[in-house]
């Protein structure tokens, strides 16, 4: 699934009757960021996109709402998972390594987001810690993942898991030499 972040942002900004400068001011981000994202010249980090969406009063789930999930669908083939990768990681696919996120079904309809996550070696959600009004947990399926929650830091290996209040600032990094696979859940949905 290809998702046009710039077009979606432009659509929501126009619907809110905000100029790029007004949105930048509300979101506490540089005006140039709004312009480059809308033109698809850059992809914002998750933290920057969160600020922009907060300025619009829009959640990640609503921003990336997917109309293709079939009502009542209970089982999903691998190719039916919703690829959020291009919409969330564009600017992160640098020297830090890439991240890939695939969502099971319609998170908003179930008030539960289940993700299959892949972190390449060096992948990092960024120094700007994430924080949102949710609870989240996950299990490492392969590789290893450093998870920081507040002041607590731990590198989780295969079979180990995390569960925490997402309002506490947090960060995920693959500090290993192999890709890391995680299956996670978040409620209410965040991404």
From TrEMBL:
Sequence intervals crossing the membrane: none
UniProt-listed InterPro entries: Cro/C1-type_HTH, Cupin_2, Lambda_DNA-bd_dom_sf, RmlC-like_jellyroll, RmlC_Cupin_sf, TransReg_Diox_bact_type
Record's keyword annotation contains rRNA-binding: no
Lineage top rank: taxon: Bacteria
MF annotations from Gene Ontology: DNA binding; DNA-binding transcription factor activity
One GO location term (cellular component): cytosol
Keyword annotations of the record: DNA-binding
Keyword DNA-binding: yes
SMART domains linked: HTH_XRE (SM00530)
Span of domain HTH cro/C1-type: 9-63
Cited PANTHER family: HTH-TYPE TRANSCRIPTIONAL REGULATOR, HTH-TYPE TRANSCRIPTIONAL REGULATOR PUUR
Name of the protein in its database record: Cupin domain-containing protein
Organism: Phreatobacter aquaticus
Organism placement in taxonomy: Bacteria, Pseudomonadati, Pseudomonadota, Alphaproteobacteria, Hyphomicrobiales
């Amino acid at each position: 699934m290809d998702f046009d972040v710039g077009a979606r942002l432009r659509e929501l900004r126009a619907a809110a009757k905000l100029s790029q400068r007004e949105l930048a001011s509300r979101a506490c981000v540089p005006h140039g960021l709004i312009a480059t994202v809308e033109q698809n010249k850059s992809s914002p980090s998750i933290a920057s996109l969160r600020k922009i969406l907060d300025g619009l009063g829009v959640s990640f789930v609503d921003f990336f709402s997917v109309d293709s999930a079939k009502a009542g669908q209970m089982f999903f083939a691998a190719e039916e998972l919703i690829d959020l990768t291009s919409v969330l990681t564009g600017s992160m696919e640098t020297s830090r390594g890439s991240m890939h996120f695939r969502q099971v079904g319609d998170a908003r309809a179930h008030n539960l987001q289940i993700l299959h996550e892949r972190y390449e070696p060096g992948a990092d959600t960024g120094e700007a810690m994430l924080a949102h009004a949710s609870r989240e947990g996950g299990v490492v399926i392969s590789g290893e993942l450093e998870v920081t929650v507040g002041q607590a830091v731990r590198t989780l290996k295969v079979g180990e898991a995390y569960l925490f209040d997402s309002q506490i600032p947090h960060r995920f990094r693959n500090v290993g030499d192999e890709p890391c696979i995680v299956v996670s859940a978040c409620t209410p949905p965040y991404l």
